[in-house]
Amino acid sequence: MNFQMQNSIPYLTSPLFEKYGIPHAFTTRRGGCSEGAFDSLNVSTRRKDSDGCTDIYENTVENFRRVLSLVGGTTEKSVCAHQVHGNTVLELSDEHGGMGILRGAKINIDGDGLFAAPTCGIEAICVKSADCTPILFADRRLGSVCAVHSGWRGTVLDIAGKAVETMVKNGSRREDILCAVGPCIGVCCYEVSEDVYLEVEKTLTSKNAKKLLPELFINKRDTENGRKYDFNIGKMCAELAILAGLPRENTDFLDICTCCSTDSDGRIFFSHRGQHGHSGTFASVIAPFRV
Ligand SMILES: [Zn+2]
Q: Is the pTM of this model over 0.90?
């Protein structure tokens, strides 16, 4: 993990992506203009605080402007995913500009994954999260990129693998695709029930990879509310990219917990669990690039 600062906005990068000069950033909750539960770099217009209020639209647009500036994007020509915990990966063109960011955008389509080629007319793509896993992909030969939001539902639907397939369909060789799994809820804080375990088991069994289960689910215990496990969802996402054919050395799992990472200024990331369902979302952003 590399911590960086640009225009007073702190953000994280993947050392692997840095090595290839790929323009990307995982932001924190800091450096924005929103207040209250959305303090401060919130990019969600739908999430609600404990009074049932959403963030001020103009503030989210300003926050998007700051986030996108980290990779040279503008609000008009960039896209943020309309996330619904599915496995749709949208292939973008210039008519999608502003989608998920500006109310005036021409098109708004649901999709937890976004794909952009350097020639598509889109400057940057972005996913939002607050414990769910953000995953960024980049083709170091073609300059095409993919951004994915993967909660446990998207994870068992293998949206990571779907992203790799979308890139391959658009000319990528698997050995050129790099993957960075950003800050998400860590195994330290992510207690899940048996139903999540069984869904993951089903997904891994279909990929002949059931042997990964003991690494992904630890501290099995029986409680009065049923069997519980601690789930390493970020590692699962990285493993799904490898199962989709990426060389292991092409994947970088940052392994930073959104729920319990704090410093002297308090919470570093927005966290759905840590803030009891009333939080904003931070952004993970990447730009298609010329090689
Ligand atoms: Zn934690």
A: yes
